[in-house]
Structure formats: C-alpha cells, structure tokens
Amino acid sequence: MTDGLTDRQRDVLALLDSGATTQEIADELGITKSTVSDHRASIRDAGVSLSVDNETGRWAVANEADTSESEATDDTTDFGLSAIELGEEPDESELTDRERVLVSELQQGTTVDELTDELNSRPEVVTAHLKELKRSGWQVYIDDSTDMVAIEGDHVLRSSEHTGTRTRKANRWWELRHNKLVREFRGLQTPQSEQPTHSDNEDWILHMTDLHAGDRVRDDDGNVVYSTDDIPKVIDHITEKSLSLADKHGSEYDTGHILHGGDFVTNSGIYEGQFEDLDAWLDEQHESLMNPLVRQIKAFSERFETVNVVCQVGNHGEHRASGTSKQANADLILYKSIRNTIAHLQDHAGMLDNVSFQIGQATPYKNFELRGGKLRGHLRHGQHRRPQAETSARKKEWLSTLHQHDFDIAFAGHYHVSGRVPWDGPPILFSSSPKPAGEFVEKIGESVKHGEQGVATACGVSDDGLTAVFPIDTRGY
Within a domain: residue 2? Predict the structure, then answer.
C-alpha cells in the first residue's frame, strides 16, 4: 500500500504508526500541521487505514481487525459519524485544500457519493475525512430528513471576495442563509400542481421586476421618494391592482401566473455610487420582501384554480462568496425562501396546494408553459436584450431568441421602461420598475419626469395567444 508514497509521506506514516500527534509530527519534520494533514490525506488515499485517539490526539495505523471493525461501523446509516467526539473550536487555517472543498460542500448539504465524485476518491476515504473534520471541531452531521451530510453551526469559510460595498456581517449572513436554504431546497419537494385548461378560458399573468429593495432614491429637493420601507406597500398595490384588472377583463381563468423577473434584491456594486444609495443590507432587504410576496401568492391561490410562480434572477444580486453555489445570486435567497415556505405550508398545513414553483438559475432565461402547454412563455431579466428591435442588430437578437426558444410571448425588465417591442414577431413585453428614476435609470433607460410611475404588467392569454395588456402604475396607490 505504501509503494505510491513519497519519502516524506513514508516519514509521516512511520511517525503516525509510532503514536505521534499532529503537532509532534510537525515539530519532528519541521513542517506545518496543515502540511501534516495533507500528507495524512495522501496516505489514506493510498489505502492505509489510520485511527486517532480522541482524548490524546495520538495516531496509529489500523490493523486488519481494526479495519474490519471500522468498515462494519461505516456500513451503518451514519458510517460511524455519531460515535466521533466533537473536537474543540475549529480552526479554518488548519484545513487542507481537500478539507476546504469538503467544508464548502458540506455547508450546502451533500452526500458521500457526491463528495466521492467531487474529490475523485473512494467512499471510505471521504468518510474518514468527514470523521476527522468532526474531531477537529467541525459539526458534521447526517440530516435524517434528506440523508445528506452537512455542517451545522455558524462556522463559515471566509470569502475571498470581500469588498468595500459589503460588510463582513452582510457577507457572513449571505453564506449562512444561502447554505441553509440550499439544504432545505434539496430536501423538499418542489411545489407542483396540474394546470387544467378549458378552451373558452384564459390564463392571467402578472409580471413584476426590478423592485430594488435596499435602494434609496431622493428627489431634486433631497426628499426620499423610494426606500426599502416602501416595498411591502408597493407589492400589495401591484397584487390588488392585478386582481382587480383580471375582474375588469371579464374572462374565466384557469391558471394565474406570477412572474418574478429579478433584481428584487440589491447586493453587489453594479453602478457608480450604488453603495451610497443603499438603505438596507441583505437581511433587511430580504425581510421586507418575504411577507408581501407570500401574500401575493396566497391571494392568487384564492383567486385562480391553479397558480404558477416563475422566477428569474437579475444582475444586481450577483455574488460569489465561498461556500455558495456557482450561480449564487441574492435573488435566489429570496426565491428559495419563498419556495421553501410554500412547500412547508403544503406539506404540513395543507395550504396552497394549487401552487407550483419554478426558479431559473444557470441561464439568463426561464421558459414555462402557458395554457396547459399549448403556449410557451419566455421570462428573462432583460440585461442581454434591448427593449426594441428597430435596428437589424436588435432584430437579429430577438430573432435568435425566438428561434432558440420558440416562445409565444416573452417578458423582460431591467431597463425600467414598459411597453411592447414593436416588431412582427410574437409579443415581447417589457415591464417598468417601481423604483423612481435616478441617474442610473437615466443612463440605461428613460426616466419618468411626469405622470404616474409604472410598476408592473398584467395580461390575459387564451389558447390563441395574448388577449389584452394592462400596464400597472401608481394610480390609486
């Protein structure tokens, strides 16, 4: 088993077999404890079974009897993890590169099989690493409800992307909240419901985008005209107005679609001066949005036979903190929180059983069914497509999108303008933002200098396509 080891690894192995501690090996060989851990991982990868006395910290090479007993224990549901005594406070600086990968994956929840693939290793080596992490103070446990391995507690890896626009507290909140939600997200069934259709009926659609919770806008006199505290009232207004417009349209409906187009939460510095415009950190932004958005879904659930919630992330929430998924985005925290809330209500309270949920993540768009699959909707945040097709280049972009996705109606935002793209293809509707115009809005779109502020778009769709469009603004707000 030792044929593939280097001379230094054989030296480490000999000291391990003699009962030395990690610190004693480091002192003897003139290396760091982290390097000792690296060598120990390589020795295990070579097939050598190691054991440690939890009380003394002294290592040994397990004999065949020990190995058999260990393997028998590992065959249980928690591979002997529960028998391992939790060590003292974990020290991130002592993690090896491999252990850092493990901790990052464990913070989101994973399985031994997934870790085996991630590390290109063997299950027994992975489980040995997990036990050692627990001995080192990392609270590794088996989640009985999902059969996943995870880490509990407030220990997170420090982010390498800390910037002046994000405090350490906000960064830490991000990682803890995101990782907890990912574990819940994977353990719950995605809310689903059938979308029955009747040929004479329609579907009703509400498209809402670019809420920008966390942003603060002042008028020319310095008065605050938009802030995080305004968000719940704005969302409730949009919900009430959409349902009243559905009644005004006078149709019978099968499914109510709620489209959340992104940039609900503001996180990273997208434009110059954005930090000065913030009036709330991530946790406050998140809390301001949760209740009114859940109320919105509840109202639709009571009004329509079935409800389909489709979510797409925006570009103002981009973040890549260590320990989070590759497609981490602040909007995802919000969407997953709402989705998990709906799933819990369905599972434990028998509520909102007619609600289904879809979240787009890895691509800048999310396609979804309308009219029970007779039509195809296309939702994107909008930063990669302009709200016009008047030039050959712009028309080519939308033609390419149409050929790729074969949509019957598309929805986008980002530019803080509302209206229908004038072209000879299927309807493309852009929705405005409730956020009043500011310097950034003037740069990317068209500011509203007079009249009512647009806030969302509602429309009806039959089996034949779009029947009516109702821009929602602040009249009656």
Answer: no
